[in-house]
Amino acid sequence: MTRRVPTLLDATAGAFRWLPGFPGKGRVALVIHRLLKRGASDAMNLRTVRMRDGSLLEWDLRDESEARAFWLGTYDDALRDRLLGVVDPRGVLFDAGANVGAWTIPLARHVMRGGGRVVAFEPVPENVSRLKAALARNAWNSVVDVEPIALGDRDQSAWLWLKRVSTGASTGTAALLAVCEGDLRVPEVRLDSWIRAHALERLDFLKLDVEGAELRVLAGAERTIAKFRPLVLAELDEYWLSTHGQSHTDAARWAAARGYEPLYWCGGIQPGFRARRSGRTLATLFIPEERATTVRPALLPRPTLRFSAAAARTGSA
User: Fold this and answer.
1) For 77-299, which CATH class?
2) Which DSSP helix (H) or strand (E) runs through 157?
3) Contact between residue 105 and residue 75 where contact means Cβ atoms under 8 Å apart
4) Which of 11, 101, 166, 223 is most buried, taking the most CB atoms under 10 A from its CB?
5) Looking at the DSSP assignment, which residues form a beta bridge with residue 233?
6) pLDDT tens per residue across span 15-62
7) pTM higher than 0.85, yes or no?
8) Spatial contact of 74 and 52, defined as CB atoms under 8 Å apart
9) CA–CA separation, 214 vs 236, rounded Å?
């Protein structure tokens, strides 16, 4: 098998990937990417790189969210690493909306240390193929089960909108549609139904990145949430929520009604619930109230003590 010759794009991205972080690094990366990718052949589209956390992941450079990960060598690393500090590696972790494995692979590495398991839910066949390839490439097959279904609030078939139709990428983002026909018909399953069919005995962490259908998934998981009380991480986007007639306010009401305390990510984990309407995604962690006193201190920034010069002189006197 012939080896692919590194291009200027590969060399530039390889160097950029290991630069220290700076404000706007992701935006700069995409500007450079567009310049170097212009006029390139299709042979340049798929790239496998070693991420900064050691994972080997393949990215389709036609999709800008994947291109950003290719250039940065990170994908939610700071948020993910902070959360995994409070997730039991002996537990069961669900990745709903697993896509091509950006979260699944690090979750698998985490549970490997404690004997736990990961279940990755991904309904798009092409995404499933790349996800399985990523698991094999990183040798995590033994701790991950891949379920080629969409989670939702009904047990039926459902339509997905596929981002790849507009980008030309081989894989990518998919969104569960509320009413109209879309690009792909897939099985939709309630999490309660899946748990019952598989006789699961615990669920420690549920990550939801399903393009606005997060509350639909939670509606189909009422018994699961009540029984296992997992930590829930939801990537909430106001636009995608609105396609299902919902908003961040509905997410806050869901949390309050079920005894969950929200924290949100904004360069670090912050207390409370914050609705962001600028088109950007809001990563929100929902903690069971009965665990808040132990989990919250481990996640929130520790307060620093500041002493004025006058106070220091007084104290030394």
Assistant:
1) alpha beta
2) strand 156-162
3) no
4) 101
5) 207, 285
6) 999 999 999 999 999 999 999 887 666 667 889 999 999 999 999 998
7) yes
8) yes
9) 7
